[in-house]
Amino acid sequence: MGRTVTLATCALNQWALDFDGNLERILRSIGIAKSKGARYRLGPELEICGYGCSDHYYESDTLLHSFQVLAKLLESPATQDIICDVGMPVLHRNVRYNCRVIFLNKKILLIRPKILLANAGNYRELRWFTPWNKARHVEEYFLPRIIQEVTGQETVPFGDAVLATKDTCLGAEICEELWAPNSPHIEMGLDGVEIFTNSSGSHHVLRKAHTRVDLVNSATAKNGGIYILANQKGCDGDRLYYDGCAMISVNGETVAQGSQFSLDDVEVLVATLDLEDVRSYRAEISSRNLAASKVNPYPRIKVNFALSCSDDVAVPTCMPIQWRHHSPEEEISLGPACWLWDYLRRSKQAGFLLPLSGGIDSSATACIVYSMCHQVCLAVKNGNADVLADARKIVHDETYVPEDPREFCKRIFTTCYMASENSSQDTCNRSKLLAEQIGSYHINLNIDAAVKAIVGIFSVVTGRTPCFSVYGGSSRENLALQNVQARIRMVLAYLFAQLTLWTRGMPGGLLVLGSANVDESLRGYLTKYDCSSADINPIGGISKTDLKNFIQYCIENFQLTALRSIMSAAPTAELEPLVDGQVAQTDEADMGMTYAELSIYGKLRKIAKAGPYSMFCKLINMWKEICTPREVASKVKHFFRMYSINRHKMTTLTPSYHAENYSPDDNRFDLRPFLYNTSWSWQFRCIDKQVNAL
């Protein structure tokens, strides 16, 4: 009697609408799975078209091309003698579903539509798909002719069913269904399903990985079973980075762990497991068995195929392992770096340009690019032919081999210090030293001539010349003069991004990197259309506190000693005149709040869904040792005034790596008005009433 099964799951770097590339990666993963003895292969959610197609799901072309790819998979010799489980959109009776298509030897066994759709945060699945609401119900699906010609089938089962092979029973979940309180695996497990599969499109958020791992392990801890999870990886065309972490768990313990961050487009995880471990685990759980005796059975699709061999007693099985989690600093070093690499190679640009100010934010961005160069060199050293081919295309040299991160950085990364009369020598020196240590091609320039020209035009037209407040000017004049400097830097950044390589006799252009952190964006402490306006921003979803910790990590792990002075310096925009040659302007003084306070406001506003009054009520307890209720009220009012006055800036926020659940990204994640009544009169009266009562 067969008892050991060999199963494969994978993490694929799929790209929305890249049907050629997606097909190639799927076939490659199936080939690897078969070569390692697997009899079942699971892939990520919607892997055929790519998860992030968004409104392209409305197009009939997306459905057509998905079926064309499915036909290629069915025809391929690589898919023979292995059950293949792939993801794609399917239109059934004029309703679009997010589906798993499970097939074996040119025959489709089952099309299983998603039952519980992800529709919170970054996810909008209900916009494009309908959940399958007919529990344990199966209908006939009429196949398109392109598939009929390959399979010889006119119809196949479509609905909520499980697969019964000769030796076990398998049931599918799709991403969100694992996270829901009424996950299908609960009832499936009670009905005798021994192997649960989950195809995911789950993105990276700092400190989130352990939650996913805990959910997978807990899925089988109470009910027994084998749980295998596949996930998308990489940047598939937007702000999210899908972070792999394919895994296999048995009876509540992890037995195989995939990488969270890597430049491998295809990663396959294979495990050999003993079905008798599941059966003996379940046998002694009497409460589970009592519930199982009353469960409403699932329709079973019989499959004339075995996942085990008849004589497998001596086959070794996988043992439990301890999951290795990355620290948040490692996550920042690796996640955004991998996202940048995907964006760079897929945009077919020749590198990046970063305005490097000598502050923590732009320095952290530079360190992420340097980390990316490290990852590229390491991948090439480990024999990754895809990364080597991409690197050669980027530098336009078919013989090039990236071996030294600093040398590779010199080729693809330009940093630019844009000085003005308000810049200090300290920030200039810090920028230059950091550029030397990471190896970037560094430019020093002065923007004063351009600023004077712009202000001169204004003076000629109006007959008035604005002054900084230290010279007697009004606050309006002071702010306008700061904004001119900031916006000139954006214009120059794009000019140098387009032409720097031209001046060096090299082909191509550069992507401009932004470096505004999540807290500054939330507060609106940035000039609209300044250097925060860029092509992409790898730190736009990361807090100042986490960035400081990341800088310390880089000092210790990359030996970037230039970062020590950057860490110790007070954050400053350097847009107001120096006093005795020293910086007088600091970020926290300008903002009227600390970065630590901003992080707390951000989490309460977004994650805790707190308006002004609720935030005040929470903070009078959180800060009771350091602030009076009246001081808390003043702080909360100031934050909401500044947040609402500046919310319009979020409509033009540079696309940023999504890393925090309190991100103010206006595009899809944080949907709010951008024209507020900034007096918050009713809300603030409620706060005042409570302050007086206290």
Automatic annotation (TrEMBL):
Show the PANTHER family listed in the entry.
GLUTAMINE-DEPENDENT NAD(+) SYNTHETASE (PTHR23090:SF9), NH 3 /GLUTAMINE-DEPENDENT NAD + SYNTHETASE (PTHR23090)
Q: Which family does it belong to?
A: In the C-terminal section; belongs to the NAD synthetase family.
Gene Ontology molecular-function annotations: ATP binding; glutaminase activity; NAD+ synthase (glutamine-hydrolyzing) activity
Print the keywords alphabetically: ATP-binding, Ligase, NAD, Nucleotide-binding
Looking at the UniProt record for this protein, which Gene Ontology cellular component terms does it annotate, in alphabetical order?
A: cytosol
User: What EC number is given for this enzyme?
Assistant: 6.3.5.1
Is the keyword Lipid biosynthesis assigned to this protein?
no
Q: Can you say what this protein is called?
A: Glutamine-dependent NAD(+) synthetase
Q: How does it associate, per the subunit comment?
A: Homohexamer.
Which HAMAP family does this UniProt record tie to the protein? NadE_glutamine_dep
Q: Note the superkingdom of the native organism.
A: Eukaryota
Gene Ontology biological-process annotations: 'de novo' NAD+ biosynthetic process from L-tryptophan
Where are its TM segments located?
Answer: none
Q: Which residues form the CN hydrolase domain?
A: 5-275
Q: Which InterPro entries match?
A: C-N_Hydrolase, C-N_Hydrolase_sf, Gln-dep_NAD_synthase, NAD/GMP_synthase, NAD_synthase, Rossmann-like_a/b/a_fold
Task: Tell whether Cytoplasm is among the UniProt keywords.
Answer: no
Pathway listed for it is: Cofactor biosynthesis; NAD(+) biosynthesis; NAD(+) from deamido-NAD(+) (L-Gln route): step 1/1
